[in-house]
Amino acid sequence: MSRRALRRLRGEQRGQEQPGLGHLGLEPGPEGPPLSAATRRGRRGPARTGVSNRFELIPAEESEDEPPSSEERADAWLSERDAAEGNNEVAVAEDTEGDRHRDGEEAEQLDQMPSLSNKPRKKKKKRKAKKTSTEETLEDNDLEDIDGLLEKPEDTNGLSQQSQSGVIADSRPLLYVEHRNLNPENELKRYFGARAVLGDQRPRQRQHQHVRSTWLTTPKNTWPRYSRTGMSMELLETRRGVQYFAFKHHHKYQQLQFKFLEAVESMNLNSIVMLLEALDPYHVDSLLQLSDVCRMREDHEMARDFIEQALYSMECTFHPVFSLTSGTCRLDYRRPENRSFFLALFKHLMFLEKRGCPRTALEFCKLILSLDPDNDPLCMLLLIDFLSLRAREYTFLTRMFQEWESHRNLSQLPNFAFSVPLAYFFLSQQDERSELELSQARERAAQLIQLALIMFPSVLMPLLDHCGVQPDARVASHSFFGLNAQISQLPALTQLTSLYVERTHSLWKDPAVMAWLETHVHEVLCKVDARDPLVQEAEHKRKTRYQSAPRNIYRHIVLSEVKEAMAALPLEVTSQPVMGHDPLPPLDSIISYTRPERTNPPSNENTLSLFFRSLLPNFNVQEDIRHDGEEEAGAGQDLNQGVNRLMAAMRDMLVNIQFQEPPRDDNPEGDGDWD
């Protein structure tokens, strides 16, 4: 601290010394003439403009009233120079090149004119140096605190920042869902660009009147405004970090549900339309039923719109802690209130796939599977491989096979047995991978495709037929891949193979894929001729493991509407009514409320009315004629069975109908008699 500042702190008076002329700019310096006021202001200008604290100007104003003596200025200059040399060692080292140049000029001027030094300017520099060193110390302390905070989560989680960044993709759960991948417009923008997707639509025009934003769908201006429908979601329990939710129908919604069932039984479509227009425009089951009607009429735009409204209605009732992306939220399909959400998601997924958005459809498929991965009520495992291949998510498919094969036996499903080696083959064709990764992918693909051909030989010939490829003589004449392989297999396995071939045959049409498949088909035939024990083991598995298919596979086939797979459904499935809003309900359903019995049951119905009523869920001839005696009840049961057989025969007839072209004459100009 200088003597002048120390004297001010003590409160000593100044003025005993004779005022010199240095403060007027007229006292000569030791090595040159005095500077003019303009020159002094010019040199002092940059320092004034750089002042950031108004209180730094106070000493300058006081110096005009109490000019210091030349002896006092010399002592102050010497003390400040010594202090500046000690305090500015760290600060000057971190200054920029321009600051160092300016400091050099100021030091040179002070050496030449010590009596004319600008004291406030030197104080400013000194304070700046002190401030810089202080800020540097604070920054170092802050960095140390931040490093300490970052080390704490690393210790608790057992992962370092470097390892987290290296395996960020693998550390995510397998069924991790991203919100941005649930919007089909994002995928279409990647394919065609934002201008092609949105057109001339401006952002302000795209704003809708619905206040609530949702992830599953984007509300449209043409939709009615949403209001509470009497449906909500509640948290049932939490076990081992997994939360179990359920949709709940309140009294108002239960009455709507009863009216909907009555409208379905009456087979009156106008009743369902009136229910939506007059009572509740967001009744979920009515929207699902109308969507099926529009789809059968080939009005796919309206059918998709009804599905999106149903999803929007159900998302608005989500519980606050229900998450689509966490993978820890569960819904039990055995509860009828939850089934509408599963079905709406599945139908929306199918529309997305047909629309050309396989990546978005894959994200919805993962969402459905995450809601009940243990039971998989809609059997999404039969579809997720196809969507992964179409979306070119080969790494996801191979990772799923590696993680789930041990406890889910995915290799025993024909779709996984063939799709996983196909994914490895596509990975082996990617140039951006290393040579080691490419070699490993090729070896893995060769190993798995041979196992698939040995385990499911009945897939090859239908697959080649759908691809329009004629097999060579050796393959066509061999009994292992011949017609006997398709006839001898069980019906449950026929359903799975037919479903896979019909759905994914377009992915095998690539010439490179066919050449790769042909090579391994011949290698499998060599193993068969050599009587490899693996071939006999696979045959034993086919005869013992596919006696009957579970109910969720039947439900998946019905919802997928693949004709060849539906033709292979057993009679116990085709003989019972299948409703669009609840196809093949679980046998162990958890019923929360029941429908009241009808007061005036229909009577005096003819055979035709009974036939139509057999298509409805609550049809039971025995209840209608319960009071007519055992003889009439037996007759009603026979009638019910007869109608069911007739329905099954009609379905088979419609599926097996093939239209043949009329015979053409190879010689149209020949002499033909048309008499």
Report Rg: 42 Å
Might you state the CATH topology name of the domain at 173-194 and 215-377 and 584-594?
Serine Threonine Protein Phosphatase 5, Tetratricopeptide repeat
CATH top level assignment of the domain at 173-194 and 215-377 and 584-594: Mainly Alpha
Mean pLDDT score = 76
Question: What share of residues is helical?
Answer: 55-70%
Principal-axis shape equals globular
Structural class, from helix and strand content? Answer: mainly alpha
| Main sheet specs | 3 strands, mixed
Considering the protein shown, what is the CATH homologous superfamily of the domain at 173-194 and 215-377 and 584-594? Tetratricopeptide repeat domain
Walk across the major sheet and give the strand order.
1-2-3
For the record, the CATH architecture of the domain at 173-194 and 215-377 and 584-594 stands as Alpha Horseshoe
Count of helix runs: 33
